[in-house]
């Protein structure tokens, strides 16, 4: 994949590094992160010795075959998953040491997440789903209404605002999921195959949006099977069977 600018090759220290070794400007630093599932007496590893630094303002694509651990990795970064070992620093805070409520506060404040399977709240309308991330912030009601109005407009889904997720097509749900991730202008956007269900021109629009957000300082980490989508970013992390591999 020579056309990807790999300005920041993935570092893989041989030894378990200590807290002092975290790069000073890393937004996200993983030190020896591992995740496994127990089956009776045996254990299956889905992430192995993951050491990676992602700087503020990067646009990173995570690629690899199905089952390689891409979603698992993204969910750990997004702090939805806490069943792993190793050290994870986010904005210099040791996530591995934080209490659940402090982790929740940190990700609600800074991270917008597009789930591979959308995860819209079924009992809320499109409008209400989009308002949720704003409710985590200290934003006045009038401003929330105008932000939701703007994003509905931007994503051309104004006519769907009072519908529930099960009244939308798969692609429309995906658009709402992306809109929900970006609406509160989070510091980091994590997106798991954000265009998988979209028409190619809509997919390109989402990538153009991510590119614009990245140019204005947002860190983007996307999982993608698409080399065209990865080309919007500046760096690729390749996963195989839970390991980071160089290509
Ligand atoms: N609850 C579980 N118990 C055992 N193994 C699991 C469990 N959940 C996930 N896995 C395994 O973790 C591995 C990684 O899954 P993950 O969803 O991260 O893959 P992925 O790279 O995102 O794949 P895809 O491209 O298909 O989305 C898979 O082999 C999967 O079977
Ligand atoms: Mg996945």
List its salient traits.
single chain; 247 residues; alpha/beta; Rossmann fold; four-stranded antiparallel beta sheet; globular; disordered N terminus; binds adenosine-5'-triphosphate; binds magnesium ion
Q: What is the helix content? A: 25-40%
How much of the residues is beta strand, in percent? Answer: 25-35%
User: Remind me, CATH topology of the domain at 23-119 and 185-245?
Assistant: Rossmann fold
CATH domain class name of the domain at 23-119 and 185-245: Alpha Beta
Low-pLDDT ranges: 1-20
> What structural category do the secondary elements indicate?
alpha/beta
Distance between the termini: 7 Å
Give the helix tally. 7
CA-based shape:
globular
For CATH, the homologous superfamily of the domain at 23-119 and 185-245 is named as: P-loop containing nucleotide triphosphate hydrolases
Strand segment count: 10
Strand arrangement, major sheet = 6-7-8-3-9-10
Q: List all distinct small molecules, including ions and cofactors, that are bound in this structure.
A: adenosine-5'-triphosphate, magnesium ion
Mean pLDDT: 90
Query: What order do the SSEs take from the amino end to the carboxyl end, as H and E?
Result: EEEHEEHEHHHEHEHEE
**Radius of gyration from the CA trace?**
18 Å
CATH architecture of the domain at 23-119 and 185-245: 3-Layer(aba) Sandwich
Task: Write the topology of this structure.
Blueprint: E1 26-39, E2 42-55, E3 59-63, H1 70-77, E4 85-90, E5 93-94, H2 100-110, E6 111-114, H3 126-135, H4 141-154, H5 170-182, E7 188-192, H6 200-215, E8 219-223, H7 227-230, E9 235-240, E10 243-245
Parallel strand pairs: 3-8, 3-9, 6-7, 7-8
Antiparallel strand pairs: 1-2, 1-4, 4-5, 9-10
Helix pairs in contact: 3-4, 3-5
The structure holds adenosine-5'-triphosphate and magnesium ion.
Residues 37, 44, 46, 64, 66-72, 116 line the site of adenosine-5'-triphosphate.
